[in-house]
Amino acid sequence: MADAIVLREHGGPTSLELESIETGRPGIGELRIRQTAIGVNFHDVYVRSGLYQTLALPGIPGIEAAGVVEEVGPGVSGFAVGDHIAYVTAGYGAYASERILPADLALRLPSAISDEVAATVLLRGLTADMLMRQVHRVQAGDEVLVHAAAGGVGRLLCQWISHLGATVIGTVGSAAKAELARKAGCRHTILYREENFVERVRELTGGHGVGVVYDSVGRDTFFGSLDCLAVRGHLVNFGQSSGSVAPFEVSRLAARSNSVTRPILFHYIALREARERMAADLFDLLAQGVLSAEPGKAFPLAQAATAHAELESRLAPGPLLLIP
Fold this sequence. Notes:
This protein is α/β, with parallel strands linked by helices. It folds into 2 domains: about 1-115 and about 295-324, Medium-chain alcohol dehydrogenases, catalytic domain (Quinone Oxidoreductase, Chain A, domain 1), CATH 3.90.180; about 125-265, NAD(P)-binding Rossmann-like Domain (Rossmann fold). It has 9 helices and 15 strands. The protein has helices spanning about 40-50, 115-135, 150-165, 175-185, 195-205, 220-225, 265-270, 270-290, 305-315, and strands spanning about 1-5, 15-20, 30-40, 65-70, 85-90, 100, 105-110, 145, 165-170, 190, 210-215, 230-235, 260, 295-300, 320-324. Strands 3, 4, 5, 6, 7, 14 and 15 form a 7-stranded mixed β-sheet that branches. Strands 10-9-8-11-12-13 form a 6-stranded parallel β-sheet, with helices on both faces.
């Protein structure tokens, strides 16, 4: 038997309840994993609240974790008992002390990357790779606006983009978060509660705007983000922490030949070779010190509701994880 957080109906954090489940044995092409660290993400919040109706209820939420291989199923090669692995999955089930995992999803962890770091950086790191190397390829000399620049993905984007030689402008909610963003490579920070970020971006770019905006906030920033774009600029909306974006006339984009994308990570990591290449690049940059990631604040698995409440408060200083 294993412990798991089961969601039986959509609602607030208290909808997350600890239950005992039976894990079973791994089948063909599967691994049994003893999970050591589980990432807590806004995706999990959206699933719990019902904004994303992608988990059949009752179900076990969670899309990211790290752990140790306890049993190898028939037909699996390349893994052995005791291997440390991490994964991201659209199939959910991460909020558990033990699980059966398709071996195809498992990514072997280098010795330099701890389980705790892996469980909070893999999803964010793969997302950053997707955003600035595939959805819109950032190059030296570019001017880029990153919303929520002190957040988990935001800080990785700032580090990675500045490493490439581009200029990063970041919006943040407080002076403390502005300092975090600057340390991550933001050339300019904008306190969006005190300044009009559209006017400030225009000022910082000499009036022409930025080539790309990475926007995970959604409703509160989307149309302002459009106004920040230069001619042929690209708005990449990859989240909606403030709510869904209202419908708009696509002809609005014509004024400056702008484009809008709403990428989903799982479409970019559907192939194993893509996952492995992106993860290898991420782990290599972490090992080099180009990217940095802290292990995050840990909660016992049974306190998943508390972790969700803290994440939604936006007061968490860094990533959050659950420890079975």
